[in-house]
What does this fold into?
Amino acid sequence: MNILEIEGLCKYFGGLSAAAGVDLHVGQGEIVGLIGPNGAGKTTVFNLVSGALVPDSGTVRFKGKSIAGLKPHEITRMGIARTFQAVKVFSNMSALNNVLLGYLFGGAEQSAATDAARRETEEVLAFVGLKEMKETRAQDLILASQKRLEVARALATRPALLLLDEVMAGLTPTEVASSMELVKKIRDKGVTVFMIEHVMKAIMSICDRIIVLHHGEKIAEGTPQEIVQNRTVIEVYLGE
It folds into this structure.
């Protein structure tokens, strides 16, 4: 079953085509990578799926229902969460309160003041490895921990589909390896993962399929093994 289906997706900024007739799908339980050169349209696709942008044409379906044009909070409460290319944490708030906001944005029935809300929030922080830092202000966390905090905030909305936008950018090799394990844990938890990433070791190691964009168009799709042998992808992105 496909949890996400995109057909003929187009978005233009003036004369620039950021998404030009993109067709793709993400199957339930998959980890799917989205790669391509800078400016290929990857984050635009995420913005169109998450409601930050409205498509000029094309369809976006989540669990068979059209979501194109819905507000971000409506899409979140249907079961799609995301992180951002540039970390967007609430700097002066504790890690715990950052995640509580995600919990509430996801449409939680309990208020943030309840024991249940705090318990669920602490469980998410523990899941991403930030349990001991729950009272630390977000701005005082190192980059790798801020990225994990953003993942935790997204997970607190209880998504079925998680969009990860360069969650490993700027991390050390050790931190990348740890993040790869976290992504696999998220999938094992029952959350489908659609991820943009430039760290090729990560993409090739953990993704079931990879989709390649170039100038807003899909130029290739396949398993990691198929992608690394694709001449077009090598020429425009991977290099020899």
Remarks:
- The two ends are 36 Å apart (CA to CA).
